[in-house]
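Hey team,

Sharing the Amidase run so nobody has to redo it. Sequence (495 residues) first:
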Amino acid sequence: MSVDESQDSETGAAPARHIGAPAGELEGLAEQARALAEGRVTSTALVRRTLERIAATQGTVNAFRRVRAEAAMAEAAEADRRLAAGERLPLLGVPVAVKDDTDVAGEPTAFGCAGEFPPKERDAEVVRRLRAAGAIIVGKTNACELGQWPFTEGPAFGNTCNPWNLAHTPGGSSGGSAAAVAAGLVPAALGTDGAGSVRIPAAWSHLVGIKPQRGRISTWPDPESFQGITGIGPLARTVEDAALLLDVASGNHEGDLHRPPAIAAREAAGRDPGRLRIALSWKAALTFTRKPLHPDVRAAVTGVARTLARLGHFVEEAEPDYGLVGLAFVPRATAGVGEWADRVPDRSLLDRRTRGAARMGRLLGGPVLRRARAVERRQQSRIGALFGPYDVLLTPTTATPPPRIGTLAKLNGWRTDQAMIAACPYAWPWNVLGWPGVSVPAGFSADGLPLGAQLLGPAHAEPLLISLAAQLQDDLRWHERRPPGHPERLDGVPR
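Structure output:
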């Protein structure tokens, strides 16, 4: 059934009341880069403001596991010297954050785990690329233990809270990165996405989250991550900022197993997508568990579909043939947990669910894992058949609004899996396929909690998805909304 483009284009049941200031100056990644290049602000001032905001919110939002305060200020001073000397780079002097599964030289990589971890000797390839573009890494953001769940809670660091409502999760596993951006602590951050771990917190934090094509951003020092299902992606308030960070972070190390051709993401953000054929899908992949769709989510995503139709796209309901794609996901995901668990200095500190997943990964290794990987091309062909008659697949990002803190954290392994699948059934198949997806803000629940819609495409479709997301942003203006308590506009950031 096609979407009636003559209907109202509302994107949620009831928008959240905006308490913070309207879109402020020097709040976005691209805007900060421009202001630094034009001499309107110094890196020292921006980084100092960032560190002050982090310190002021650690007791409430709790977005960061590690803060590089002294090192970041020293690097900002050096960036100011380079700027004064006339040097220009895409992000020279701009503060950003990375997730705590990403190596930063001199810092431990605990990936949500408790215990003492040794500092890393070298930057990950993606951090090397951020630094080469001039970015200042202010810290490493919280993630749930080994990135397994759509919440960011644990005994190693406490609870990371959603800036839109501190009683609720920002999602996971890149919840710290999402919370840091949504709260206005940094203009953009990197997360990782193995089953929706960028897109889910983007949806639940009113952000743009991009899961790029497998290998678009290097996972080195790992040739691939979690048996190829996990990739690195940006979180930001605007499509332009997410695309800029994607451009800067993209590229490969010679040891990477996946090396897709280069794209120009930020250029795509300024390009009209043309008239597209869009399939609207409500069906989740088969998992033999209940996955009821919350009515507020259906209303919000229907609103996005109506907006797309009003913008001139052809939108109708159609469903991909997922088959039994879940049978290929579980061996890869649990094997990845086992590989990461082997790096933990004291495995006795791991959550019981993590130890269970690692055991499952060892049981499903060998022939089962090889078979799971061998059927990937067949799955791509079957599910990709949708992209003959259609250009883009539109789905909810999640099936529910963000749960309250603690809802999932204390469940046993099986009940956690059931609850997780019920809340987040739409994202993970694209990790098996290795294809790109973009989560965009879709509106708010009746309780004022953010909701997301997912734009999905075939291999190497990031430019098309980014162009479409930017067109939606121009119409819906989601980036002008801020959560309660967002920092006041700072027109006069000192130099």
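Residues 29-480 form a domain with the Amidase signature (AS) enzymes fold (CATH 3.90.1300.10).

Ping me if you want the raw files.
A.
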